[in-house]
Amino acid sequence: MMTGWVFVVLSSVSSVLIAHFLKMTEYAGLNTIRVLTVNYAIASLVAFGTADWRDPLSYSGATDLVMPLLIMLIAGLLFIGNFFLFSRSVARNGMGISVSSMRLSLLIPVLISVFWYGEWLTSWQWFSMILLFAALYMMLPERRAEPAKNVDPGYQNEQGISRARNRGAWLLILLFLGNGLADTSLKIYETSYSSVFGKEFFMGGIFLTALLTGVLVLIRSGSFRFEKAEIRLGIFIGIPNLYASIFLIQALEQLPGALVYSTINLLIVLGATVLGVRRWGDRVTARQWAGITLTLVAIVLSVVSG
After folding, report:
1. Where are the beta strands (DSSP E) in 32-124?
2. What is the Cα–Cα distance from 256 to 252, expressed in whole angstroms?
3. Which site in 21, 79, 248, 259 is 20 to 30 Å from 43, CA atoms measured?
4. Could you tell me the end-to-end alpha-carbon distance of the chain, in angstroms, rounded to an integer?
5. For the stretch 109-143, what's the b/e string if a residue is b when 16 or more beta carbons lie within 10 angstroms of its beta carbon?
6. What radius of gyration do the chain's Cα atoms show?
7. What residues contact residue 129 under an 8 Å CB cut-off, 6+ apart?
8. Is the pTM above the cut of 0.85?
9. Which residue has the higher pLDDT, 81 or 129?
10. DSSP code of 197?
11. Above pLDDT 70, what percent of the chain?
12. DSSP-derived secondary structure for 128-141
């Protein structure tokens, strides 16, 4: 039991490290796609290196492979897309807000579990989900009312500020949806197709898809020249990126799933917010602090009621 909690802490620390290194990427003005591409190269190599290849190589049901391979492809595209969105959101909205929005995405697989897989939720768990939706709204960047044209000489500047806030809000919403769908794809795999591929092989396929996507984007944009700092940060992100999932799975093997997910989300939100404010000087409004606090309350409530 105690070992399970160790894996919970290790998974949380790994996720906070990912956020920190992505913040370093933006702060240093490095190419995010190049860093993410290196990250997935490292993650896929390690995942495939530790995978059991006997099952996928001996599997003969070619028709039955279509859906798990499709899920693997979609998840890989979501993974690299979500990392790109997260990197941009950390730069625009701050680390604590971005991580909180990303953690709120657990609502999507939870709702799908309820309405598609028929899993039961208590009244308190439903209440905690309502709190999470309210928290998401509160964490969106505040938007000022735009002045009328030809009245305020600073109109163009106000418009720019308003557009920046809108972009920041959209980044949080897309981050919420993208991570929720990625988590859902993993749940579908675990529920229906885990007998086809082992988890290491499946995760390796997801990372490989994300890697190839990043390579294609770089070739298309003509920016395939990697800097040493980009390679270094890509390696730093790739290792915790892989082991955040591995530690999570190991924790799930010893502790109840609802408790594991909720506790990890709580630790990540707390860790990323404190790190963002103290290390990176993130500015968080009173309304957004209330949203983060409400997130923590909702997650604690789901732990207690689970």
Report:
1. none
2. 6
3. 259
4. 17
5. bbebbeeeeeeebeeebeebbebbeebbebbbbee
6. 20
7. 107, 110, 111, 121, 298
8. no
9. 81
10. S
11. 81
12. HHHHHHHHHHHHSP
